[in-house]
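pasting for ref. prot 1 ->
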Amino acid sequence: MTITSRLLLCLALCAIFTACNNAPSNIETDMINIPGPNGPEDVDQPAITFEESELDFGTIAEGEMVKYKFKFENTGDAPLVLTSVTSQCGCTVMKNWPKEPLAVGEEGTIDVEFNSTDRDGQQNKKITVVANTYPAKTQLTIKGVVVGPQTN
């Protein structure tokens, strides 16, 4: 084998292996929803209904912790599975949520803590709940005003 053909073979193999790394690493949430032939209404599905989807904590001093439980119920007609609960910011942490399927009519909570340290001003934090519902994503919001220390 000549040097030119070896070089071409190496380049071809590099191109093939590099192309394999471009595959998407995340599975779309729509893949967990398998609707019937006439759409999502055609099959039994869970539904997540929150008592409140937004918490307005008002005005707090910088450094305070806000703790809240978002209460919800499976109002659908199939078991509900929460696959992930995430926030857009490290200052908002989800401490607890059901990891096992919830039966129809069963209730649960998502425990959330907001740390206002170094968060002066208006706050509007989003929490994304991904479940086997349609649509798969539900948004929760924590908002309020954080007042920093007074300077003289």
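and prot 2 ->
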Amino acid sequence: MASLTKKKTSPYWFACYTLADGRRTKRSTKHTDRRKAQTLAEQYEKAAKLASQKRLGEAQARRVIADIYEATSGERLLSATARDYLTRWAETRKADTAHSTSTAYAQIVRDFLISLGSRADLDISLISKADIARYRNAVLARTSAASANKALKYVRIALGAAYRDGYTQENPATKLETLKRPVADRQQRRVFTLPELKGTLKN
């Protein structure tokens, strides 16, 4: 059971709880109020217990983090599913971008949500680099590197907005580099060889 202790060198209560591997540990609660400190200590132990039972999935981890954040700050952590946030974001772009651009944003959002499948209904903070890479690669498989890069760019813009709005701690799309077009797909110009140049001048 989680308990509290104090150190002579700190005004804060320290939570004492058991880790997933069975070891006892101590962590500062950053609270001087014993009641708030005890609530946080219990959240720490809850997270450790779920981890030890291998039950701390992505969604559960997000809920535990939200509980800990609320116990620490007194405020609820901003939350929205990827589907809700991205759909709302695409809708708001109609007011501040050209029609063609807002239409492209909406299409990319629809395609990305389809690519996410059931993960679209997870909190947007749980969308990963792997999710975005899977979508980008699917676009590449059916179109071109240029289209895949455009899709990545728009997803990067959308998730950048989520980061700035406080719904995520990072923008995972920035971890992906744009694709390089295969040499065979490029239309490259080359200089004339000397024989070709002479032939052209004779004509």
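The chain is about 55% helix and 5% strand.
Residues 139 and 147 are 7 Å apart (CA to CA).
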